[in-house]
Structure formats: structure tokens, C-alpha cells
Description:
By secondary structure, this protein is mainly α.
Amino acid sequence: GSAQYNQQLTEKRAKAVANEFEAKGIAADRMTVKGMGEANPVASNETRQGREANRRVEVVVPAFEYQTTEQAQ
């Protein structure tokens, strides 16, 4: 498809995953949803296997530092 079509598709795919996380109780404001389209392939789009690998969603969990009760005081 065209670059515009692929961008719409990747955004729809990313939003579908975010919706599943929301359904499991993760607040929407704790997520950033970003569709990469053709901008960030992990494989060549010249082969079927490469195109399949590029149809993906990556989930990144940022680092979080926990404080114990003693540290918070």
C-alpha cells in the first residue's frame, strides 16, 4: 500500500494494542501510542517474511524507581 495507507494501518494497530491494555486496567494517560509506519522497519520489505516482521507492535515499559517507606520520609 501507499505510505499514507501504511501509516494509518500502523496507527490503528498500535491503538488496538493500547485499547487491550486499557481493558486490562492500565490507564490511558500512562501510555504513549505511536505508529511508525514505514519509518522504522526491522527487516527488508522485499520478502514476505520481512514484511511480516515489520507488522509489529513494540511495547516499551519505562524505568520506574520505587521508594521504600523509609526513603519517602
